[in-house]
Amino acid sequence: MTRQYRLFTLEEAVNFALLALLIFVILPAMLDPFRLNLFGKYLTYAFVAVGLVLCWGAGGILSLGQGVFFGLGGYCMAMFLKLEASTPEATAIQSTPGIPDFMDWNRVTELPWWWEPFQSLPFTLVAIVAVPSAFAFVIGLAMFTRRVGGVYFAIITQAIAAILTILIIGQQGYTGGVNGMTDLRTLAGWDIRPDSAKLVLYFVNGALLFLCLLAGQWVRKGKVGRLLVAMRDQEDRVRFSGYNVANFKIFVFCLGAAFAAIGGAMFTLQVGFMSPTLIGIVPSIMMVIMCAVGGRHSLLGAVYGALIVNGAQTFFSEQMPELWLFAMGALFISVVMFFPTGLAGLYEDHIRPRLPGLRPRRPGRAEPIATAAAE
Amino acid sequence: MTPDTPSYATDFLLAVERLTVSFDGFKAVNDLSFYVDQDEIRVIIGPNGAGKTTVLDLICGRTRATSGSVRFKNQELLSMREDQIVHAGVGRKFQTPSIYDGLSVFENLELSYPGGYTVIGALAYKRSAEVMTRIEEVAELVFLSDLLDVRASSLSHGQKQWLEIGMLLIQDPQLLMLDEPVAGMSVAERKKTAELLNSIIKDRSVLVIEHDMNFVKDIAHKVTVLHQGKVLAEGSMEKVQSDPRVIEVYLGH
Asked: CB A230 to CB B117 under 8 A?
């Protein structure tokens, strides 16, 4: 028997290919530009859900504040776009032309120093990943080296999401406040608003998502992935096997943050604005729900989870505007009660055994969602 | 706390001196001193609540001491993290089998193979032929050769104990600490485990907690009897067994 390291089993490769087919061929062929853009928006949440599969599903670290990283990535992108849209000509009617409009409304007369670097596209692209990762690193360092975990960690991340929202709303003159950053127009001279641009962005988004999926697959299949599973089972034992557990938790938390941030930046580009309502506690919990619906042990499941939860949200809010929140609640409760391992678990238990040529997987794979949340 | 490391060097592999830990005023280990030589097999016995497991917890960094010193090869362990203590050469087996249920036997052993301890190291880790050979060797030793691809959660209790012993072996520690390695085993498993332990305790120092007196007689070079967090008696098995105080608090039962 060979135990050589392989990135994909045949089955996983097929499943990756099927998802690629859906995202790159089927959806663009079937949907009108408006709906396709909507799906592009849904897919930006898939980045977050994939990151959560690594943190929560693989590592047992439940973060209820992934919106923070989604938002930081999104705001970095929005700052660049906003500066580009705020040329002195376009803002000639302001009392201080050449600065973003919301600054002018709030009597800020000079571009703050920390806005300056966002005039550079290369800096912005680095910052989109680096700023949220660095922030995740600081949170991780503070929490994991002190061995804060489980429910406490979840609560703290939720508090951070609340704090960031309050901070952004409170610092209206520097952040655009509760309205967020709107009226974004061009990316390095390329207009992001027409349908043709949205189509390009949709494909860029899909390609980036697959890069993240591949990175996630690589981490999970390697030694770090096995260590994360081991840590979830027996954190103490991992220490006595000679590993500094905190470092691995920080790593996977930062990775999840980086994925979320890329999603946030793509959200800004495709939707054309970024606001604090998209990054607070409620959106952060929605992101966890997407991951849970898809199956928190499955990278691909998370993508389907993001599509389904967001799709359902749009569908319910269009069909029954008064009741849609209840419908979403029912969706989540039914997942927790009846499909604790999400869609991926359903596939694992009901579809996979019926597929020809696939050996049944070893027992004991499924575990209830509630225990993992309590870990 | 800052450990009270004595200024003089010691020739002992492990020097535990004036070690004290207090939980809300209760001194589970109280001013305890003992020394373990290179290649010595030391058994710790004592009644329940004597502080035996706590001593091992203190040495491997799981519990933080209140005062005292634990030196291993003249390195102070009390100021080190658990993983640093492992790297220094101390291995620990827990009382209840402590293995990774979600991974296969092979993967359990693989994670215990030394190296790739940092995040970068683990990301760059490759499953080399050397690692595979070593894992197969160890699996053979701990009677798990045929079960390498089985999930650890589906092993029997005895097999889990063996797996954990295997995980320690692959780690190759200079000081091996075992907490009741034959507890909860069937008679047949117990016999096999005794043989296994006899073969792996060569060429290293071992600190064992055990209640099975026949097993203790078999392996112990020296026995330390703990009572209420203190050393009650220390010496050869014969000497300890004939000590009236030991008979009263422990062996008499």
From this structure: no
Q: Do B81 and A242 make contact, defined as CB atoms within 8 angstroms? A: no
> What ipTM was estimated for this complex?
0.88
Domain ranges, residue B34: 1-89+212-253
The pLDDT tens digits for A333-357 are: 888 788 888 888 888 888 888 877 6
The 3-class secondary structure across A235-299, one letter per residue, is HHHHHHCCCCHHHHHHHHHHHHHHHHHHHHHHHHHHHCCECHHHCCHHHHHHHHHHHHHHCCCCH
Answer yes or no: is B150 within a domain.
Answer: no
Residues in chain A within 8 Å Cβ distance of B104: 362
- Global confidence as pTM: 0.91
Tell me, what CATH number does B240's domain have? Answer: 3.40.50.300
Output the CA–CA distances (angstroms, integers) from residue A81 to A35, A75, A84, A175, B185, in the order listed.
Answer: 24, 10, 5, 13, 68
Indicate the length of chain B as a whole number.
253
Determine contact, residues A260/A132, Cβ cutoff 8 Å: yes
Residues of chain B with Cβ-Cβ distance to A239 below 8 Å are: 81-83, 86
Q: How far apart are CA B122 and CA B115, in angstroms?
A: 8
Q: Is residue A4 part of a domain?
A: no
B121 within some domain: no
Identify the weakest region by mean pLDDT among A243-247, A312-316, A366-370.
A366-370
Residue A37's pLDDT band (boundaries 50, 70, 90)? very high
Count of structural domains within chain A: 1
